[in-house]
Predict the 3D structure of the following.
Amino acid sequence: MKYYPNIPDLNANSSINLLLKRAKENRTVGIEEYETTGGYSALRKALTRFKPEDIVIMVEESTLRGRGGAGFPTGRKWRFALANPKPRYLICNADESEPGTFKDRIIIERDPHLLIEGMIISGYALGAELGFIYIRGEYPAGAMILEDAIEDARKKGYLGKNILGTDFSFDILVYRGAGAYICGEETALIESLEGKRGHPRLRPPYPANEGLFGRPTVVNNVETLANIPIIVTYENYYMNIGPAGYYGPKLFPISGKVKKPGVYESTMDITLRELIDMAGGMRDGKKFKAVFAGSLGIYSEKELDVPMDYSPKGFGGTGTTIVLDEDDCIIDSLIVVAEFFEHESCGKCTPCRVGTYELLNILKKFQEGTATEQDIKYLEHLCENIPVGSICGLGYSAPNAVRDALKKFRDEFYMHIEKKCPAGVCFKS
Amino acid sequence: MEKVTVKIDGIEVQVDKGTTVLEAAKKINKLIPTFCYHEKLPIFGGCRMCLVYDVKSKRSIIACGSYVYDGMEIETENQQILNDRKFILEMLFTRHPLDCPICDKAGECDLQNWGTYWGPQNNVLPITPFEKIRPEDDWESDYLEYVSNRCVLCIKCVSVCDNINQSHSLFQLERGFETLISPVTKPMDSSSCEMCGLCVDICPVGAILFKPFKYNARPWLLNETFTHCSLCSLGCPVVIDHDGKKIYRIRSTAELEICAKPYLGYDAYNTNRLKNPKIQGKDVSFDNALEFIGQIISQNPSKTALVVSPYLSNEVLEKINKLGITTTSIITLDLLPLLEGFGDYNPPDFEEIKNAEHYVVIGDDITDTNPVITYYMKKRVVYIGEQLGRIKKLYPNFIQAEGRGIIEKLKENVEEGSVIVYSSYFFGEDAKYLGEVLRKLQEEKNCKVVIVPPYPNGFGIVNNLKRISSFVKTLDKILSGEIENLVMFGEEISLFVEEEKLKEIFSKLKNKVLFTPFDDGLALVCDVVIPLNTWVEEDGNYDFFTGQKKSKTSIKNSFKNTEIIDKILKHINPTSNLIEGFESDCTIPEWINRFKTNIWDASYFSLRSENLTNWKIKNQEVLNER
Amino acid sequence: MQYTYLTEDIRQKIDKYLNTFPVKEQVIIQALHLIYSKYRDIELPHMEELSNYIQVPLNQIEGIVHFYDMFRVKRNARHHIRVCKNLPCHIMGCKKLLELFEKLTNEKANEESKHGRFYIETVECIGACSVAPAFMIDDDLYDGTKITEEKLNEILSKYT
């Protein structure tokens, strides 16, 4: 057994055993075990029974959406790239850095071959010959596990020239990031992958037209790609998994004040309330206060019945759920989120660079007790304007949490102006 | 080219497909404010100042980075856009120190200008701009200074250094709000920086300053003269900022073509200038001095020789023909034999050179002799020379060779269609041989031959003078007593002749006459010295590599170089019994110095620049180290 | 050129990257990881050697080093402790964990190491939110949910 850095046991559970079929225990599934449990049969099936076009149609019909947060239909993304000539590139976005998100690492560290198989099939469908896995720098073990798994797959002939005796050739290279949330944005990821500072590019051109090295490129999240072997295996049966229009398994990373935080696999027909129950409910009998969907928004108690799908009113995104209870202060949490954005803003565009910085400064005034009602207006002013001129998703989503909080927890702002913190977090001294 | 029609603020305009909205708007003279855009740089699109409203997609897009499509409708000044602009400016102003009165950029600052037109005229966020937030980054330079809190992070400085100058001397320190611009190594004066000053010129605010200019002038009170730099054979367009008496700075135009020679070296024109003619150290009037010279020449025209400088304009050179005396120039040592070997030389089109795939640089480092040409060398480069110097910024394939070995290596390494760039190195016979080889390569391998001497008007001498005598032979004639009077017209021959030999030559001369802009050097040992105008003080055409171009007067002197010759002509009876034709030097004696051009000391102008000399002291050691 | 910091071993690995990646600029970040794991700090001489070895302008490498969190900090320590301070870990008490670390190692968080053994850094989400407050020591990730002074001491003793 090779030495890998220490990984603690991250709780993972599933009632449907698709993505997490082999990944519920804290160990890495080797290639032999993967094969004996049905692994690489989807690849065999894809290469022998289907044309690339068949797989694209299958993915389109599956209604699979990008699991990285934006929820863009994967099939459509592929179509855009397929409209452009070869060479095309496939990139797996394993730069999972959204606060509270740790679902991709479960797949990478425990069932790497599922991702690799998904990439090979996707590469086949896209007519790509080279794929990259951009894995975040903070997952050193994941990078090593992937490197070894890829080497094993090469030895077995699943990667390399003439895969399984067909004329399809494909290889995967692992590329480590080095700690920059912005590199999860697909164009910034491509810049970083080209060996530059991770500044997002202007769009258009979109990566599907001009991506890596100016070639058509598809960037898919780990979970998205892990869905591909399942789609190929189940074909039309895939449409029996989950609600209409939002088929397929989804991973939900839950953290915070629940009894059993961890990654839960489920269909998308559950609600936020059910998900929290799945994680054992609130810990220590405390009262629920709010859910931070990563850094993308806040859900209050009134919205606990939101469906966890990609519908306009759904939870969407990465499925990240950070549960706060009555002991947590919204302002204090917003400052943490604002610090995160201020720290991670790449600095390319003015509204995001300065906006996130000033947002943080004004929020801090609420904690310090120096804020006035005017500051609420400034916050609203910033929230309204920062997204307009921003280049990428970071700028678009940076004010989301504050905007939601102003809507749903406005009284907490007023209380802080009066130097009162309902949770007793601020003004302790 | 496919055309598309776009409507900008209701005005229809037809442009090529692939044009950006900003360029299309320029065509109808619509001003769209920008910070990070420059037409010669890759599109960055970060400042978001140029937001315009796309009516069809109902959203704000950036004008600099969005391409037009047929039927596009753009509004540049609707309420939404005005709000957007105001917000962007508000963001930039939140921590911008409002120190305009002591900021050198005031008056030519984009932030100031756009703020006036579109900005919030009050402090919207409750933050005082005087709170300095970002740490200062000391560039440790005598010339360039960075004021972090003024920086709007348009990154044009880094871009210009990477994409134009290519010396890659700046980078972005940290990221996000804390980003600073920093030199690649410190102190900056000893880094790979070439002191071209483009980062200063391109900075839209007062974040990067040129220290020698700092606190010295208010830009709006200065006159600007658009001219062509006449310090090497490229003749780049530059702007001289002056008050009619003194030059305050020389900066680049939007072409972004400038190097350290004018940028740092402008101070040479302000100090140690010769104001009055002198005979034996005593001030005399122009008339008296020129009459005296006229007498020398007319008394013994055959015993008088003239050395002309390739820094003189065509107008002056043409008049020199009329003097009818033996005329020589240092170009007989290098450029003339080269052209003799080459035959009829027609410089290739500069655009073709810019777009070439493969360059072979031979001889002296082109980054020292003619830096600006390297700004355009963006593809494969082979450098054949003695030592890899600054040109290493282009990551050339370096082939070490000396003397004629360079020419042999050139033959081996040239490819079909290569651009061969040569400035200086070979003298005499070797230069002639190089000329022959270059001609052959041009004909047989379809190479483009770029001959860019380190001095501006070498081609002007060839094109305007009817006769040129050998430089070496002329000096030999002095030694043998055949020539008694030497008139040096704008030439510092001490750079080319060994000191001991020069002393010997001078001891044989009856009359040493020097026309010079400077009150030092040879002016101290010559019998008669007459002031001369440089390219900044007198209009003149020069035959640059890129064609004939004009340098315009920025500082007016009471005399003109051309009038000086006219006045001498009044006192002599030209006897043009000299044979027309060029005589180049083939054998070069040991006492001829090969004046090696460096970016710091490219000419007798540069040698007199304190800025350049100081920079040289700081920079030289480090270049040797690395 | 003589390479002092890019050891034979590192150079071999860089060569391997140069052979596998389509573009040499792609090697920069991977090579910096090699330097980082050997020296823990990336300083100018390292970058100069790398710039020379893979023939990429130094400013590009410096720009990258200063952009990415893992490279830009000067640590001056053999071991690098990363304590997550993002929201899940924040509400699960990362501040207490941090205080514990500061006490046990006698170092201040985010300050250059005094003793040369540990450098403590507070970082954004390290993707282990179910074991919050999570922390990493070098490449190892640990569960901080039931951490005690005793347990932490035991873990730290593994890093000399």
Remarks:
- The longest strand of chain A covers residues 128-135.
